[in-house]
């Protein structure tokens, strides 16, 4: 598990924050997370809707490092572009994805971000096992091509929409088993996605069963980041529809179990819930989660 500053680890539930915009420069993400009192951060290192990757200048890196230092020695993760699909059966798209992912790895290494969160791709009708094999092989090639050594790739649990890989713990485990760089792989556990994929956490019994299953298949020590999102759709419906904490199908009880679980007290947790530019939704959701961690039922 990651090492945290005393301030972050002393807070109920551990380091807690949100995904933040980089509009105006990468360093602006720290301004936004500081404004909501967050002690964990996720960001994109570039426009995730475009294939074009701008140069990361020395000034960009310096401003980022300075803003991070001013915010505090709190944990940060980057998320790669949603355009990337290392499992694609289209050779041209897979190569484009490989080049882009290698560059994402170089960017996070330059910025000294320890984690790069990624979706495990889509097999696009070729079958799960074929997709897993193709993904693991391309992931290894990207890691090697990037010539990086520090950043850990976190495979994000997915909702299982369409032909997306990573909806089951077994699929994530098989990717790790096939990779020649398993020591650089971990998991980002998304509560909305896993619930949509059929993993329940709403009662103590269901919560225990889900994480016992994860521990048997992958190992709890592989969880290095959480995305805390409630969901608009029911258990096992395989739809990715994020909702505010306590306003969806998981509800406050499920998040309370997670926030008070001592096994995850030092693991960073970030929101990806809907919000406006005033960030009031983040403030409210974070207050609810801190309340749940403190045992008061989630009252902000």
Automatic annotation (TrEMBL):
Enzyme Commission number(s): 3.1.21.2
Reaction it catalyzes: Endonucleolytic cleavage to 5'-phosphooligonucleotide end-products
SUPFAM superfamilies the UniProt entry points to: Xylose isomerase-like
Ranges where the Xylose isomerase-like TIM barrel domain occurs: 36-283
Record keywords: DNA damage, DNA repair, Endonuclease, Hydrolase, Membrane, Metal-binding, Nuclease, Transmembrane, Transmembrane helix, Zinc
SMART domains noted in UniProt: AP2Ec (SM00518)
Family: Belongs to the AP endonuclease 2 family.
Designated name of the protein: Probable endonuclease 4
Organism the protein comes from: Pseudodesulfovibrio alkaliphilus
Lineage: Bacteria, Pseudomonadati, Thermodesulfobacteriota, Desulfovibrionia, Desulfovibrionales
Gene name tied to this protein: nfo
């Amino acid at each position: 598990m990651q090492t945290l500053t005393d301030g972050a680890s002393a807070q109920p539930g551990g380091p807690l924050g949100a995904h933040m915009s980089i509009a105006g420069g990468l360093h602006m993400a720290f301004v936004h997370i500081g404004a909501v009192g967050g002690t964990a951060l996720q960001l994109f290192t570039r426009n995730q809707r475009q294939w074009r990757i701008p140069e990361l200048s020395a000034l960009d890196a310096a401003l980022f490092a300075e803003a991070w230092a001013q915010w505090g020695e709190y944990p940060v993760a980057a998320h790669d572009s949603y355009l990337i699909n290392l499992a694609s059966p289209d050779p041209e798209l897979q190569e484009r994805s490989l080049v882009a992912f290698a560059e994402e790895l170089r960017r996070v290494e330059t910025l000294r971000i320890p984690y790069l969160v990624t979706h495990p791709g889509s097999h696009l009708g070729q079958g799960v096992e074929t997709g897993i094999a193709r993904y693991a092989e391309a992931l290894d090639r990207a890691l090697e091509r990037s010539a990086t050594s520090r950043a850990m790739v976190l495979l994000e649990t997915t909702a299982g929409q369409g032909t997306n890989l990573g909806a089951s713990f077994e699929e994530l485990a098989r990717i790790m088993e096939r990779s020649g760089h398993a020591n650089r792989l971990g998991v980002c556990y998304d509560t909305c996605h896993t619930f949509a994929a059929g993993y329940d956490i709403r009662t103590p019994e269901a919560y225990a069963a889900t994480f016992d299953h994860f521990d048997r298949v992958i190992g709890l020590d592989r969880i290095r980041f959480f995305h805390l999102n409630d969901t608009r759709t029911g258990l096992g419906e395989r739809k990715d529809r994020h909702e505010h904490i306590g306003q969806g199908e998981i509800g406050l009880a499920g998040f309370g179990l997670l926030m008070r679980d001592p096994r995850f007290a030092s693991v960073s947790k970030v929101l990806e819930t809907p919000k406006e530019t005033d960030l009031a939704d983040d403030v409210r959701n974070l207050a609810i989660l801190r309340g749940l961690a403190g045992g008061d039922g989630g009252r902000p």
